Automatic annotation (TrEMBL):
Keywords on record: 4Fe-4S, DNA damage, DNA repair, DNA-binding, Endonuclease, Glycosidase, Hydrolase, Iron, Iron-sulfur, Lyase, Metal-binding, Nuclease
Keyword match Hydrolase: yes
Assigned protein family: Belongs to the Nth/MutY family.
Protein name stated in the entry: Endonuclease III
Cofactor: [4Fe-4S] cluster
Binding site for [4Fe-4S] cluster: C187, C194, C197, C203
SUPFAM superfamilies the record matches: DNA-glycosylase
Residue stretches in coiled coil: none
Organism: Dorea longicatena
A Pfam family the protein falls into: HHH
């Protein structure tokens, strides 16, 4: 690990702590899987509002697998892209019911075989449910890892590979947790609060 990266991590740890936090509300692995699928192009706060009723209406993998597509579309409409999300959720839950005995798989290859599950979603499950060190690349991680010079790539898979090389394993999951908070409060996409930023000296885009 580069000295510079170590300094960035120390500052983030000091500011935000080292506790593993998930910003999506869930009680079971399949609930986290669905919540993560819904969070694509949608805020966690909005997803949590939707899933509060959703998980009461559909209390099991089977309930989602057997539901009517049009009905589910209306239930998840506030999260956006609801046609695709509803289709994928039903197909995904059918696979979990039929191929995996109702259990969300832990292996990356198995997770990626599920409808609507990409590397980001798979790594959220592996990190939060199975505690397998995983790098989750969302929009905040993509933007800020570039700004801080930890990657020069825009492709999420390449960014994931860069961060796995750059970050110590014990910070793979933490990086996402810290950077979500940092991205929401300080380093936003459109109007970052550069003057208030405790990482400004490490930023490639900060102009003195």
């Amino acid at each position: 690990m580069k000295k510079r990266t170590g300094e960035i991590l120390s500052l983030l740890d000091a500011k935000y702590g080292t506790e593993f936090i998930c910003y999506l509300n869930y009680e079971t692995p399949w609930q986290l899987l669905i919540a993560t699928m819904l969070s694509a192009q949608c805020t966690d706060a909005r997803v949590n509002i939707v899933t509060k009723d959703l998980f009461q209406k559909y209390p099991s993998v089977e309930a989602f697998a057997d539901t009517d597509l049009k009905e589910l579309e209306q239930d998840i409409k506030p999260t956006g892209f609801y046609h695709n999300k509803a289709k994928n959720i039903i197909a995904c839950m059918k696979d979990i019911r039929d191929k995996y005995n109702g259990e969300v798989p832990s292996e990356l290859e198995d997770l990626l075989s599920l409808a609507g599950v990409g590397r980001k979603t798979a790594n959220v499950i592996r990190g939060n449910i199975y505690h397998v060190p995983s790098v989750v690349v969302d929009t905040h991680v993509k933007r800020i890892s570039n700004r801080l010079g930890l990657t020069k790539n825009q492709d999420p898979d390449k960014i994931e590979q860069d961060l796995m090389k750059e970050l110590p394993v014990d910070h793979w999951i933490l990086w996402n947790i810290h950077i979500i908070t940092f991205g929401r409060t300080i380093c936003s996409a459109r109007s970052p609060k550069c003057e208030d930023c405790f990482l400004q000296k490490y930023c490639k885009e900060y102009k003195m």
